[in-house]
Amino acid sequence: MNSEIKFLDFTCMNAQVREAMIQQFENVFDSQWYILGDHVKQFEKIYADANEVKHCVGVANGLDALILCLKALDIKEGDEVIVPSNTYIASWLAVSFVGATPVPVEPNENTYNISPEKIKAAITRKTKVIMPVHLYGQACEMDAIMKIAEENNVYVLEDNAQAQGSSYNGKLTGSFGHINATSFYPGKNLGAYGDAGAITTNDDALADKVKVLRNYGSHKKYFNEIKGVNSRLDELQAAFLTVKINYLTEWNAERNVIATWYNEGLASLKNITIPALAEGSTSNYHLYVIRTEKRNALAEHLKKNGIGSLIHYPVPPHLQEAYRELGYKKGDFPIAEKIAETCLSLPIYPGIEKDEVDKVVNIISDFK
Ligand SMILES: Cc1ncc(COP(=O)(O)O)c(C=O)c1O
After folding, report:
1. Where are the domains positioned within the chain?
2. Domain 247-366, second-level architecture
3. What is the pTM of this model?
4. What is the 90 CA–ligand 1 centroid distance (Å)?
5. What is the 368 CA–ligand 1 centroid distance (Å)?
6. φ, ψ for residue 364 (rounded to 5)?
């Protein structure tokens, strides 16, 4: 057992894939083809199959994936996109980058995921898209969300950056929406060794449009049909991800076991709220997030005892300087604000041992 417990430690995961990664590096290096080659094609096919969707389009990162999805849906100035009030800011930024307006909707206070009931109340004539974010790895209540979208004739774009392998009523996240985005940022459950992302969809026309958008707006080299960008998944990252995806199910299962250890150890503590799952939702436990009124003091106590923790996220998007223009103030989205003030993410990753989790639990139990 380590005396220090890092918030995230790649040692065990890296050891399992090390040889295969070196081999993949050599394969790409020797192929002499570094952009949009066979490795990207192969990974796109594997990821689409794994997610039970028709198409996967690899892109440079998760934020670009969201932006290109919105562009493919032709979302622009004057349009509204419903987003969670508590999410990583990328979900909102994508909406702003296409010139549309993010319309925040509060989460369910127990699951931290966007509340379907409150989505209904936020829909206007201008609403074009609902963007559920499967926060911390837990699937949103997708059946209710898809029904609301259908009744109101709006698109659904899932932000699946944190929830690879999670499901709602047996169906995988990233396969519900008209078009969906994910991130392979290194710390994600399916993480690359640099920036990477992808789009999933069952719609042939949308898949074709994002393929063109990611590559300068061009089907054929030097012939540009629309104004696209350069946001391609690179061959090296695709080659690495093709190996790593074989471990996703096993590593997600391990994260679920670790979450059970935490739940069992922390459930009886009066001042700690442990994570709750909605009926029908599973989580890949990308993050294990507790809540406590004395959050900052607890984080400090953990740090003093050599244990890493992080806050996801300390400031909700509506109170960020970047969103001052929308004119929101403290108190406008009280549930998101309360979560931001009280949440704390504990170490969870494949390879953390039971006695290390016990140590974290004991140190939290000792905290007064
Ligand atoms: C919910 C969510 N959406 C989008 C992103 C953006 O992904 P990336 O960092 O790959 O751009 C992230 C990851 O950081 C995320 O957690």
Report:
1. 11-246, 247-366
2. Alpha-Beta Complex (3.90)
3. 0.98
4. 6
5. 35
6. -70, -40
pLDDT in tens, 271-326: 999 999 999 999 999 999 999 999 999 999 999 999 999 999 999 999 999 999 99
**Short-list 125, 162, 124, 119, CA closest to 142:** 119
- 155: left (phi > 0), else alpha (psi -120 to 50), else beta? beta
Determine the residue type at 361. V
Q: Round to whole Å and give the CA distance between 366 and 362.
A: 6
Calculate mean pLDDT across residues 19-38. Answer: 98
Question: Is 87:95 a contact under the CB 8 Å cutoff?
Answer: no
What is the mean pLDDT of the segment spanning 64-83?
98
Atom number of ligand 1 nearest to Cα 63: 11
**Residues 326-346, mean pLDDT to the nearest whole number:** 98
CATH 3.40.640.10 fits 11-246, yes or no: yes
d(CA 199, CA 69): 7
Please choose, from the candidates 305, 296, 287, 333, the residue with its C-alpha nearest in 3D space to the C-alpha of residue 84: 333
* C-alpha 315 – ligand 1 centre gap (Å): 16
Start-to-end CA distance of the chain, whole Å, equals: 25
Give the bridge partners for 223, in sequence order: 220
Please report the pLDDT score of residue 190 as a whole number: 98
Residue 284 tokens read as 């890949």
C-alpha separations of 157 from 108, 130, 292, 325 in Å: 19, 6, 32, 24
237 CB within 6 A, ligand 1: no
- Percent of the chain whose predicted confidence (pLDDT) is above 90: 99
Torsions phi, psi for 279 (to 5 deg):
-60, 130
Q: Please report the pLDDT score of residue 3 as a whole number.
A: 78
Residue 202 one-letter amino acid: N
Task: Tell me what pLDDT residue 340 has.
Answer: 98
**Average of per-residue pLDDT across 130-138:** 98
Q: Which residues contact 71 (CB under 8 A, 6 or more apart)?
A: 98, 209, 210, 213
- Tell me how far apart the alpha carbons of residues 121 and 116 are, in angstroms, rounded to a whole number: 9
How does the average pLDDT of the chain come out, rounded? Answer: 98
Task: Tell me what pLDDT residue 209 has.
Answer: 98
Residue in the structure block whose two tokens are 């074009």: 128
Indicate the pairing of strand 127-130 with strand 80-84. parallel
- Mutation to probe ligand 1, out of 185, 237, 289 (largest number of atoms < 8 A from CB): 185
